[in-house]
Structure formats: C-alpha cells, structure tokens
Amino acid sequence: MRRLAAAFVGRVAFVTLAAATACGGRGASATSPRVLATPGRVSYEIAFDPSAGELRGLARFPPGSPLAVAPDESMLDWLDDVAVVAPTGAPAVARGKDGWTLPPVCAARGCDVSYRVHLREACRRIGQVDTASVEHEEVLEAPPSSWLLAPEGAAGTTRLSFVVKAPPGWSFVTGVYRAPSGGAELALEDLDISEEAEA
Prior knowledge:
It is a single chain. By secondary structure, the protein is mostly beta strands. The protein has a single domain, classed as Immunoglobulin-like (Sandwich). It has helices at residues 105-109, 119-126, 144-147, and strands at residues 6-10, 41-49, 54-61, 68-70, 79-86, 94-96, 99-101, 111-117, 133-135, 139-141, 150-151, 159-165, 170-174, 184-187. The strands form three sheets. It has a six-stranded mixed β-sheet with strand order 5-8-3-2-12-14. The chain starts with 5 loop residues before the first strand and ends in a 12-residue tail after the last strand.
C-alpha cells in the first residue's frame, strides 16, 4: 500500500519515514537548505510551531503563475492569514469559497505569499489520515496537499519544492522525493496522491 504523506513527530529519539511516495525514493528531512522559486517551480518554506500547533508558510510564486491558490479543499477552514509580503505594497489577497485570489502583480512579477495553517486543530477535528490526523498523541500526520498553498490550474508538471523547519524535540519526516537542490520536491499533478493504492 502506498500513500503520499508527511508527519510532525514530537518527543521521540528515533524517527522512521511516515510514508512512501507513489514513485518511491528517499524522504527529505527538516534540515534541508532553502530552495528558491524559478520558472515552472513554486518553492515553500514551512516552519512548525508546536506550542501553537501551527505551520507558518511562505510560498514563492514565479511570474506567470495562476492567481487562484488553495490547499486541499478539506483544509480551507484551517488556513488563514494569506498575504503578499513581496513585492511590498501589493493589494490584499481576496478570499473566496474555494480558496484565495492573488493580486495581478503576482502573475506579472511573481510574489512571496505568507500564510498560516492550524495543523493540530485540523488533525484533531478532521481525523482522516489522507487529510490530517493525530497519531499516538505525538504525531501530526498530514499530506503536503493539506498545507501547501498550491496554484490552481497550473500545468501538472509544475514543480513544488518545500523545506520544513521543526524546533528541537520535533522532527519532520516525509516520503516525498528529495530535491536536487535540497528539501523535497514533487509535481503538482502528484500532490493529490493521498489515498491508499495497491503497490
């Protein structure tokens, strides 16, 4: 059985991978270096705050990216504070029923977008391993589709690269392929591979 997933594991001395990708490969750890957005690629820096049970995300969208962005639809109520932080002076991000719409400057010049994910609360309330769940009270398990603010309508080959930072006492583990430049990486078309499938 295969599942594309990731987990935040606390207060343990030894960590194994939470899951394997549909394609296999080595997983990435929280200590990978920063990755930058380039054409055809969206990069993410994710920081986990265990005291609040939240993720703070920074997404870097290159010029030409679609303006509609969203996580998995089941996580819409658990993601907020979406704002363009660069370029400065950009208009506010509009929230809609199915996600957020970035200002036109993001398509023209590219932009950096910050956001927050209430991960622990989502894990407790949703309780579905393919979206968000708590395992053994010390493991928060959620696939990347739950906490990456992804471009809607972009080409399926668009690459999504992410680095996750966890504080001492916590580890981030994932089965997503390690990116050549560090961190982890997958194609947009693979982001929703979160249901179990036969190997």
